[in-house]
Structures are given as C-alpha cells and as structure tokens.
Amino acid sequence: MLTTSRRRTTDGPTSLPTPHELAALTGDRDRVVDLIRICSLLVVVAGHSIMLTVDTSEGAIRLGNTLGDVPILQPATWLLQVLPLFFFAGAAASTHGWISRASHDHPTAGHWLFTRVQRLLRPLVWYLGAVLLLLAGLTTAGLDAAADVVARLGVQLLWFLGAYLLVLAVVPLLQRICTPRHVMIALGTCWGSAAVIDVMRFADGPSWLGYLNFLTVWTIPAVLGVAYAKRILRPVTAAAVATGVLILDVGLVYRGPYEVSLVTVPGQQLSNMSPPSLLLAGHAVVLCAGAIAVRRVLAKIAARPRVWWWVVLGNRGAMTLYLWHLPVLAAIIVSGAVTGLDRADVHSASFPIIVGAQTMLLLALMVPVVAVLSPLENRPLRWWDDPVARRSGRARDLALVAVLVCLGVAVLMVSRYGLLGDGVGWLIAGIGCATTARVLALRPPSPRGADTVPGDHASLQVSASRRSTTLDESHRRRRRSSRAGFRARPALRVTTTPSIHRPMHEELADRGHFRRRNGIPRTRRPRGGRGVGRRGLRCGGRPRAVVRGEIRAPR
C-alpha cells in the first residue's frame, strides 16, 4: 500500500507514509499475522545463506550444505525451519477475510481460491521469465555447468508455492472449525494420516505415498491458523499442546527412525522435508501453537509504529523476497569467489566470518531489491488479473478447484525435476492449468454504462475526515485536467491499493447508495448529516456520488 498526503504533494510521485500515518491507516489489521509472515521469511533467507556451500574447483560447480559437513549444527534447524509459520499466517489471514463477510456474501470455494492464486502467481510469472531468459543465455554461451545449476536451483524453492496452493484449497473446509474439540480432531486427523503414510513408506511401500504428506503435514499449520484467527485456543492451552508435542518429537528422534535435521541434508537416509515426515508435522504443531501462546507479546512488538512500518513494507514484497533472494545470494557468492572469499572449506577459520558477512550483505541488499521489484508483484497482469465473480454454479466451482489443485501439483513437480527433462513437461502442464482456471473463473457482470479497463485493478482511494470515495484511473486523469472539483479541500490521503472486489453494483446497493449512470436503480437520496453533502463530491467537474462513509466507483 502506497500512501501520500495532500499536504505534501498533489500530482507528484507518491512517497512512503510515516510510521504514525501507516499505523493510523492499518489500525484494523491483525499485526501479529503480518509480523509472523515477514519474520519467518527473513529467517528462511538467512538460513539458506548460512547453509549453502559452493566449490568451484576443477572447473565444476558443486553445491553443498554446511549441515552435512558439520553435523553438530543440525539441531539448529529446529529453530531455523520456520516455514510452517508462513502457512499458519496465510491461513489466519484468509480466515480473517472470510469471517469478515456476512453469511450471504461468502464466495464459492473455487472462485475464492482463484483470487488467491491470482495474487500468488503474479510475481512467479516475472521470476520464471527471468530464469528462462538467463537459462537460454547460458545455454547459448556454452556455459553448461552454470546452466545446469540455474535449471535446478532456480526453481527449487517453488515447492513452497505448490504446497501453499494445496493448503489454500482446503482452507474453506477448515472454516467449519469452531471449538477446541474441532481443532484437536483436525490436528489428530492430519497427524495420524502422516503417521500412517510414514509407516507404509518404511514398510517398503511405494515411494510416491510420501508425497501425500505435502497435504496432510502442511494442513496442520493451516488448522492452527484458523484456530488463531477465530480465537479458539487459549494461550495456556496452546502452550500445553506445544510442550507435549515437543516432547513427542524428541522421542521420535531418540527412539524412532527420524533424522535430527528438519531440512534436507546430503547423505540423509530419511529426509524430513521432501517428502514431509511425521517429525515435521509435530514441529509444525510446536511452532504454530507456540505462536498462539505468545500472541500478546508479539502484538506488543507489532504495535510499535517503527516496527509496523517495516512489517507492512516487507509484506508488500513478501513473495518477491522469497523468490529473488537466491539469485542475489548467488551473485554475492560469485563475487566473493572472484575476490578469493569462497565458501568451499567449512572447516577453515575464515568460513564463519565470510558466511556471516555475506548473510548480512544479503539481508541488506534485499531491501533495495524488494523495493525495485515489488511493484511487479503488486501490478495486475492484463487478462490474468481481470475481476472474478464471487459465486458460480457448483459444477463449475468444483472444476475450478480441481484445476487449481492440479496446478499446485504441477508446481511441486517443476521444483522437483527443475527445468530439465520431465520438469519442462510439468511446466507446460502448469501453464495449461493456470490458463484453464482463468477461463473457468467467471467475470462479474458489468454495470450498464460503466467504463472498465481490462486487467487494471489498481484504484485511487482518496480519504478525508468522514468522507471518502474511490476513483478509477481514467477519472483521475480527468481530475488532473480540470480543477473544478474538490474546491474546499481538507487534508487528503491518497492510497494506491490492489482491489479485487465483488460486482460493483452489488457493493453500492448494499451500502445504500445509487449511481444512475451505472444502471443502479434510484433509491431515496440521503438527507445529509454530519460529513454528508447534498450535492456530493464533484470530480473533474462532474458529480460522482452522494457520499456517506465510502463509495467505490466502478473502474
């Protein structure tokens, strides 16, 4: 969200709000969810930098893992493996959006899921385009070793997007959770399913069974995210659950077949990550239940304006941060190798210093990188980001859910095989699924006479004391060319936000307003009151609406 104040500038480029302005604008958000999301991503970024080793001797590029060379560090993954918290935050945020609507306003599951996928895959389009261009350039130049690394490592982190999409598909079902008993039943079902799948794997069952745990294990943080959003579990109960499951996890490592490391390490007999294991399921319970237990502490931290300022700006580019941190890290490592600061020998005295300095440099460089690339994440794509209807028929909606689940599976397979061999086929299948989903997703009926701009979901929101309206981009241009409107101007705040709304005529009708030029039936004109003008605001010399609270004009 990008905000400027009228006191600063009128038509110039927007500037970032101050911490106190941002705190006032986002007062109704659950700050703990946003804090958990960005902190978990920062830990992931730092963890990848700490673990990666690169050996470029003998003309080849060999990637290694610090945890494999120094096994004593593997218990640290119980602190560094925080991706369950991202699933937790995503489910909590989705639940907040779901329960904030009236019962008659709930969207159907497929169309709700597609609106999430629109936002989720938007930065992926730009990232994959850059990776494919780089891969083509390296292949053309004959740098086969570097091309192989890019083809495999460039898409390795996409497994998270595939798993996250699968979890989002079950979030509408999880909204039925309303009591602590429901939470325990859901957790027990997921944990028990993961245990059965692991037992079958260990008993010489088919290897593909383990990949079913991508859904069962990663649904666990989503269950606890729903419980957090609905305030179902008390902090004391959550702390007790986290403690009990932590003891159980220690027992699984000490007496069971599971490895200590919660990330994949070369030479492991059993990976806890790919596919997810029962130990990772328990770890997800510990982290997410622990987050519920310390919610009040996190809320106090997020309530600080300066902290919240960084949290909001970081969340605007969360997927940019996740997708682009490995290319930036690769550039740092290559630059270090050229200057003699390589990561080949983990036992050398300089290795901790080099890794620590490069990790801090990575975190610092990601600030301008996210600032430059995050607009791509928040800029709607033509056709792909066209508005989506809130509801559709059952058959069409179920087909849309099925196609999006197939899309999640395709993304998982691309991350597994890379952009080589079978991975290319899965990439084509994923593109086909995304295209089919866009075709299946219904568009909202357009109000008669409304001017629409395909692919443009950016709206200009002008807010004042007890008076606000939303103007489309074309009307903003008219207002710039004519200064007849807003003659008596209070201190205004201009906000550019991505908006994917339900049909605009329904929204206006529910708010009790009318717009004759948009084909909305005329109703009783409001009689005024505090902050309500009889003639309404005039934008560019043309009356737009009688304002009471907020009006969203069709784009």
Write the layout of secondary structure elements.
Blueprint (H helix, E strand, L loop, with lengths): L1 E4 L13 H7 L5 H21 E4 L6 E4 H4 L7 H4 L2 H17 L9 H32 L3 H10 L5 H16 L5 H23 L10 H17 L5 H21 L22 H16 L1 H8 L2 H12 L1 H21 L12 H28 L15 H24 L4 H19 L17 E7 L2 E5 L1 H9 L11 E6 L5 H7 L26 E3 L2 E4 L3 E4 L3
Parallel strand pairs: 5-9
Antiparallel strand pairs: 1-6, 2-3, 4-5, 4-6, 7-8
Structure description:
The protein is α+β, with helices and mostly antiparallel strands and 555 residues long. It folds into 2 domains: 2-440, no CATH class; 458-552, no CATH class. Helix content is 57%, strand content 7%. The chain contains 20 helices and 9 strands. The strands form 3 sheets. The protein has a 5-stranded mixed sheet. A two-stranded antiparallel ribbon has the order 2-3. Strand 7 and strand 8 (542-545) form a beta hairpin. The chain is globular. The model is unreliable at 1-14, 448-518 and 528-555 (pLDDT under 50).
